[in-house]
Amino acid sequence: MTQAVTVYTTNTCPYCVMVKNFLNDQKIEFREVNVQEDPDAGEKLVKTTGQMGVPQMEINGQWVLGYDPETIMELLET
Description:
Layout: E1 5-9, H1 14-25, E2 31-34, H2 39-49, E3 56-59, E4 62-65, H3 69-77
């Protein structure tokens, strides 16, 4: 089963780097959306989740806020 993983990041967020490194270490493919470089995506993200912080991840329609490896793995296993 193919997992749909999107990571929303900014250029200066250390937790964004941690999430991307974690996903790479686990060999999980993901699409990155840098909201600092794509303000429209940032606005859409805030409207969708009500959260302004990054990283945020969408995994198969479920949202994860922040660097939370346990929740990431749980969502990928379902």
